[in-house]
Amino acid sequence: MTPRLRLIVGNWKMHKTIPEAVGLVEHLADLLKKSPPTNVTIVIAPPFTALSAVASALTTHGLFEGTGGGTSRPGSPPVSIAAQDMHWEDAGAYTGEVSPPMLKDLGCRYVIVGHSERRRYFGETDALVRKKVLAALRHGLRPILCIGETWDQRARNQTGSVLAAQLTEALTDVDKDQGADVVIAYEPVWAIGSGQPATPTQAREAHRHIRARITARWRHETGERVPILYGGSVTPENIGELLAIREVDGALVGGACLDPPQFARILAVASSAKA
Ligand code: PGA
Question: CB of 234 closer than 6 A to ligand 1?
Answer without folding.
Answer: yes
